[in-house]
Amino acid sequence: MKILYGTGNKGKIEDMKKIIRIHNFNTELLTIKDINFNDEIIEDGETFEENSEIKAKAIKKYCDEIGLKDVIVMADDAGLCVDALNGEPGVYTGRYAGEHPTQTENLTKLLNNMKSLETKEERSAQFVCVLTAILPNNEKIVARGECKGSIAKEIKNLGGLTYSPVFVPLGFDKPMGEMDETEFATVHNHRDLAMGEIFNKLKELGY
Question: Which residues are catalytic?
């Protein structure tokens, strides 16, 4: 069985390889680069679930067109959700401050929108990842993983993932952006959680 992961992101690919090893899943991992998929996918859904499915369906359609049948197509959508902001930035995580914003612009907008919120409880948030898998028989499996935490009141060190300078994982007193590699890998696990759930469901189905 082959798994086609709908990404060209090296970090995501390494995450997928790790989960495959953990679950001792006998599979060949392909990416969109391996099948020359270059189509632009319009992610116009209102939820992570919708965007994840849009991606997966577009890639599955391409696989069918080129005759790649015996493959499980997986695609994800992820972002930051702040409870007090009704889930913002949500599906607009990457473009919260407009089209092609800088990291500083996105962070500044987020913190400005949270100025009146004082406590960790008021500033609660989570990184969310939704993963959709479409099986060769077109059956769909969906899983959601969350990394819970809160938003810091100020930006200290820019760099890394867009919101890592201000996202403080539950149980920690510093943002992800100030963590060493080992700490970061431990807490930035929303994608791993979604992937693990998908693989458990695949095993239940006999894969």
Answer: 77
